Amino acid sequence: MNFALIGCGNIGILYDYKNPKKLLTYYSTINNNRFYKLIGVCDVDKKKKFLVDKSINFFSNLKKMINYLTEVNVAVIASSTSSHYNVLKHVLHSKIKYIICEKPFILNINKAKEIIKLIKKNKKKVIINYSRRFSPEIINLINRIKNNSYGNIDRISITTSRGLINNGCHYIDLIRMIFGENIKVLDKSLYKSKYIKNDFCGRFNILAKKKIIVNIQIKDFKNKFVEKINFYTKKNIIRILDCEKIMFVNKKNQK
């Protein structure tokens, strides 16, 4: 399976240099899978070429890469969110059948609808990388919640950081995974983040299926990631910490 990587930012390649002991990027993940082959990398910053192995084709022009690498099966879009619309238009008009796109998808709703129509028209397969959708622990937990294994969920609280657009969208998607598409924002109190460019922090409430209220708070921290998700049942609290650490707390033991 031949891959092309578009964008050499943090999730594209740079996290490898910040924490080389873990596979945190698309670049290292693809290169460490014997069934995958990274044959092309594209970034508008020509200096990023020096981060890429010499055996891999590097391009600073997306159109040139698409025209030259005709054997690409999967395109991974890890460029800036603001570039997703134009990048997707180029890739969707190519012969590439499969696309993995970083979240958030596209910020403008009309442009997003346009791209969705183009995906359907050209019969492409596109995945938005909401990583919790592929976590075995999270999938198992959600299935048990749906099967009422823990009893009825009374309410949900979520505390996180790194902005609503950049990171908070993960939790909106998580709620959609559990309760379906029919969710509604009841109220919100948001403000511009001091540390995340063009993003927001604050709080808002969502009304989900079965009249369950989901409270989401997004903290404005400079260099700190927070994740705490509580599912409240009659007797217990099901808690998710740091993406995949799941624990059960008896309400009687809570102060």
Please describe what this structure looks like.
It is a single chain. The protein contains seven helices and 13 strands. By secondary structure, the protein is α/β, with parallel strands linked by helices. It has two domains: 128 residues, Rossmann fold; 122 residues, 2-Layer Sandwich (Dihydrodipicolinate Reductase, domain 2). The strands form two sheets. Strands 8-9-10-7-11-12-13 form a seven-stranded mixed beta sheet, covered by helices on one side. It has a six-stranded parallel beta sheet with strand order 3-2-1-4-5-6.
Blueprint of the fold:
Elements: E1 2-6, H1 10-18, H2 26-31, E2 37-42, E3 57-59, H3 62-68, E4 74-77, H4 84-92, E5 98-101, H5 109-121, E6 125-128, H6 136-146, E7 155-161, H7 164-179, E8 184-192, E9 200-208, E10 212-219, E11 227-232, E12 236-241, E13 245-250
Parallel strand pairs: 1-2, 1-4, 2-3, 4-5, 5-6, 7-10
Antiparallel strand pairs: 7-11, 8-9, 9-10, 11-12, 12-13
Proportion in β-strands? 25-35%
Shape: elongated
Instruction: Enter the CATH topology name of the largest domain.
Output: Rossmann fold
Counted up, domains total 2
The appropriate CATH architecture of the largest domain is: 3-Layer(aba) Sandwich
What's the number of extended β-strand segments?
Answer: 13
Which ranges are low-confidence, i.e. pLDDT below 50, for 5 or more consecutive residues?
A: none
The CATH C-level class name of the largest domain: Alpha Beta
Counting H and I runs of at least 4 residues, what is the number of helices?
7
Give the proportion of residues in helices: 25-40%
Question: Given the helix and strand composition, which structural class is it?
Answer: alpha/beta
- CATH-assigned homologous superfamily of the largest domain: NAD(P)-binding Rossmann-like Domain
Strand order of the largest sheet: 8-9-10-7-11-12-13
Determine the mean pLDDT.
93
Structural Rg: 20 Å
Distance between the termini: 53 Å
- Major sheet summary line: 7 strands, mixed
